[in-house]
Design brief:
The chain is α/β, with parallel strands linked by helices. It is built from ten helices and twelve strands. The protein has an eight-stranded parallel beta sheet with strand order 4-5-6-7-8-9-10-11. Strands 1-12 form a two-stranded antiparallel sheet. The protein has a two-stranded antiparallel ribbon with strand order 2-3.
Length: about 300
Amino acid sequence: MSASPLPPATPPSVTLSATAQEPVVEIPAIGQGTWYMGEGLAPRQDEVRALQHGLAQGMTLIDTAEMYADGGAEDVVGEALVGRRHEAFLVSKVYPWNAGRDSAIAACEASLKRLNTDHLDLYLLHWPGDIPLEETLEAFDRLREAGKIRRFGVSNFDVDEMAALHALPGGESCAVNQVLYHLGSRGIEHSLLPWQRAHAIPTMAYCPLAQAGNLRRELLTHPELLEIASSLGVTPTQLLLAWAIRPVSGRRDVIAIPKATGLEHVEQNAGALMIQLNDEALDRLDAAFPAPRRKEPLDIV
């Protein structure tokens, strides 16, 4: 069994649909997460250097949030993008309690200041809250009209919440839903992923290396996972990333956003872009970690 590399000139990407204001855009199927950056867990310069190295490796999507280190992660990203903002597809997220008609405007402007930029490529509601979605959509629309965001989306929305959002005026323009998803946490495959695929809404997978959710760290030491990775000549984390972004029915619509602060880890993540899993590997992974047969609660961190 072997892992077949994709042609170097065609790294896999995911398509975001055109909107009234923005054309179709292709973004890399593996981007860079920043959860826990800016908290002193790694030297700040290492975090900055890792993000810059990721850009050079083709992982041009960078995901952050006002929640991460109370804005500290956005500061790190802003430093990493000095003179390189044009290279990145930049994503940030707003707290649910900051997602009101006017509070979302203020929150976005604060994020932009920390990120040292005048616009976000994508702005997400971090999770469902008590503020009516109509208010949040109004704020997102105002931010788009002002040129401060290009697109909007959501995070941690289950299928019923996505359907409710989609039914609202303007809700059909939701670009992505960011949720926890990895080989050991496949609950979204029963209802949420099919619904999003029917509505052409890509999924952004956080914790794709099983940092949280069902199985968690036990996944990376699972004998079958280790054996398959070894037989393919890839690392276990590369196998997890390649699986997360695998095409389904010939279409690739999942974006993984692993975090890395070491250059070697960054390169391993980027290398997963070029791994194409064969049917034998996929069948073995399905047998070891089967998809759910019924609706499961949304896995959330």
